[in-house]
């Protein structure tokens, strides 16, 4: 009997649908369907888990000349084939897969790309999707240790709007931020706000260096020391005086933080 036929028989004996079986193994229903039809074969780690679930040997699964134990013997080992056993298997698999890769890929796709792709575990696990979550994530919205996307959150982030330990992007927020508008402990950009801020146009921070510098220890052509800020709105007026064409959203963000300097 072929592997696919054995999987069908074992699954049906336990009363699992393909969807339930797939959930137990943290794979897609399509993967189970391909295994059962012989289009593909489970990886070794999945075969081990499958063998453990049904209390059979891996050899008896993959070798066509070996028949599976009688159903009575398997039932004695696995107990009643009920929802309780399904729940128990899920708990068991949670323990088995704790140190292995977890992956979820949604069936829905946009331009051939999964709407959601989650892939986490040891090693360089890469998630690619419209929404990507993983050790390394690439997507429109990316969350991960290393994230790349329009909206990126992670240890190291690259994108349009980035929140990360090390952030590089259009609007970058992080411990160290580099971007068009950068905010962080150390911020480098055209417009920068941070403990140490370096900017080609406007820098605001404890230590600020830019064409226009606002803060405590500052260097620039146009400077505004913190002690000189006596009213809300003063920072906004100062910026508009020297940068009348600044993009309004950036003006609002910088002015907001400038108002915080007013005691």
What is the gist of this entry?
This protein has 263 residues and is α/β, with parallel strands linked by helices. The protein has 9 helices and 7 strands; from the N terminus they run H-H-H-H-H-H-H-E-E-E-E-E-E-E-H-H.
Descriptive key words:
434 Repressor (Amino-terminal Domain), 263 residues, alpha/beta, 33% helix, 7 strands, 9 helices, five-stranded mixed β-sheet, 3 domains, single chain
Plain-language structure description:
There is one protein chain. This protein is α/β, with parallel strands linked by helices and 263 residues long. The protein contains 9 helices and 7 strands. It has helices spanning 3-13, 18-25, 29-37, 44-54, 58-62, 71-78, 83-96, 234-242, 248-259; strands at 102-105, 109-110, 113-114, 116-120, 126-209, 212-219, 222-225. Strand 2 (109-110) and strand 3 form a beta hairpin. Residues 77-90 and 92-99 have low confidence and may be disordered.
Share in helix: 25-40%
Number of strands: 7
Structural class: alpha/beta
Number of domains: 3
The whole-number mean of residue pLDDT values reads 85
Which regions are unreliable across 5 or more consecutive residues at pLDDT < 50?
77-90, 92-99
Shape: rod-shaped
How are strands sequenced across the largest beta sheet?
Answer: 1-4-5-6-7
Count of DSSP-assigned helices = 9
Rg calc: 28 Å
What letter string, H or E per element, gives the SSE order?
A: HHHHHHHEEEEEEEHH
Distance between the termini: 80 Å
- Fraction of residues in β-strands: 35-45%
> Biggest sheet, in brief?
5 strands, mixed
